[in-house]
């Protein structure tokens, strides 16, 4: 099952979004147009569905409350609205599920955030429509979605299970290398990869070794003089570590722990692990950072192979600025969304037929679409 359409209203810097989503979707736009905010819509619905410590109210509080969520350009209607369509595969005609949630501040007293609409459609059949009569008798019920409640979502738990497995990664190598020295708080969901090694450690030995052998072969192709990768636990502290062996004139002198890995090696390793591990919706933010352009150019092919080899439908949404990545001729233009600044926020659109035709004639996304994301006055920056 994958998400095939998203609709947003008054979400962060988007007044209105009505966009198709494919199994591989690339988000393109200038800085501050809202690529991260669009990805966060998927993280938000995931946070509602979390089995432990989730729910609508916590998802809102974790983002600074309604004032930080609601679009500054919003007028009427005042609700924040998120709606998702899901199908078995991207090319299916029939919609399996549609979920819609709308909410706004109560406007008095304790300033609670209340649900103004929650709907679930199974195919063409509306199976949940709130507020219902019980909600009208007890407004406190409207502080929680049925999606987050096990006793209430039995008829559509497939949706809750799907969204709870959404994975986001924007791995910051320094947090992984120097987490103990920095002493920083780990954000729930670990979006920056601080707990990456713990995640590797929790995998069964057989699965972990199989994945590391596959990643090892990839690193041998991408990292000069790289030879071998292994998992180890510190004999004193028990902390998990990854170690790499590099070619050296002394046979055993080349082993290094992850704190000595280059930033690019760590980011590539994390990306490869997630592409193998993840079996749901994976959100990747600027995967090209710290990587050589030659490696970045191969990311779409790596993603395509991961999708092809998955045992169940897998979906990946990527935000990127990279010319090298978008120069890959294997990118399907139907999976590109362009974020454009407008007078009141940001608009999101699929490529036009003319733009798709240009891609069909042999031009790349980097040539056709990426130039449109450049700020119009960026040339003046050199005069700063």
Describe this structure in words.
31% of the residues lie in helices and 26% in strands. With 384 residues, it is α/β, with parallel strands linked by helices. The model has no long low-confidence stretch (mean pLDDT 86). The strands form three sheets. Strands 2-1-4-5-6-7 form a six-stranded antiparallel beta sheet, with no helix packed on it. 34% of the residues are buried. It contains 15 helices and 15 strands. The chain folds into two domains: 269 residues, P-loop containing nucleotide triphosphate hydrolases (Rossmann fold, 3-Layer(aba) Sandwich); 106 residues, no CATH class. Helix 9 crosses helix 10. The longest helix has 18 residues. Strand 10 and strand 11 form a beta hairpin. The N and C termini lie far apart (49 Å).
CATH homology superfamily name of the largest domain: P-loop containing nucleotide triphosphate hydrolases
Overall pLDDT score? 86
The best one-word shape is globular
Count of discrete domains? 2
| Proportion of residues in extended strands | 25-35%
Structural class, please? alpha/beta
């Amino acid at each position: 099952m994958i998400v095939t359409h998203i609709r947003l209203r008054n979400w962060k810097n988007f007044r209105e979004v009505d966009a198709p989503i494919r199994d591989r979707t690339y988000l393109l736009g200038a800085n501050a147009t809202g690529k991260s905010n669009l990805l966060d819509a998927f993280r938000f619905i995931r946070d509602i569905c979390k089995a432990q410590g989730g729910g609508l109210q916590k998802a809102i509080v974790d983002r600074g409350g309604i004032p930080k969520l609601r679009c500054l350009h919003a007028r009427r209607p005042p609700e924040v609205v998120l709606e998702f369509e899901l199908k078995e595969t991207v090319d299916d005609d029939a919609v399996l599920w549609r979920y819609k949630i709308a909410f706004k501040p109560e406007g008095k007293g304790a300033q609670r955030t209340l649900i103004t609409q929650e709907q679930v459609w199974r195919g063409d059949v509306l199976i949940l429509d709130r507020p219902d009569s019980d909600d009208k008798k007890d407004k406190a019920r409207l502080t929680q979605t049925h999606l987050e409640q096990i006793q209430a979502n039995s008829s559509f738990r497939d949706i809750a299970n799907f969204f709870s497995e959404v994975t986001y990664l924007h791995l910051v190598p320094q947090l992984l290398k120097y987490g103990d020295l920095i002493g920083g708080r780990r954000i729930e969901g670990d979006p920056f990869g601080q707990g990456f090694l713990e995640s590797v450690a929790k995998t069964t030995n057989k699965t972990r070794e199989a994945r590391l052998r596959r990643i090892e072969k990839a690193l041998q192709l991408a990292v000069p003089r790289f030879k071998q990768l292994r998992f180890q636990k510190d004999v004193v502290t028990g902390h998990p570590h990854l170690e790499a062996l590099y070619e050296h004139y002394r046979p055993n002198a080349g082993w290094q722990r992850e704190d000595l890995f280059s930033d690019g090696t760590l980011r590539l390793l994390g990306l490869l692990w997630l592409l193998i591990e993840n079996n749901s919706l994976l959100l990747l933010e600027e995967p090209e950072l710290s990587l050589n352009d030659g490696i970045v150019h191969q990311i779409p092919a790596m993603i395509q192979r991961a999708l092809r080899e998955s045992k169940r439908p897998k979906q990946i949404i990527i935000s990127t600025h990279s010319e090298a990545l978008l120069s890959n001729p294997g990118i399907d233009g139907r999976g590109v969304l362009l974020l454009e600044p407008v007078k009141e926020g940001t608009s999101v659109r699929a490529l036009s037929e003319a733009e798709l035709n240009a891609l069909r004639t042999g031009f790349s996304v980097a040539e056709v679409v990426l130039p449109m994301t450049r700020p119009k006055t960026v040339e003046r920056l050199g005069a700063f």
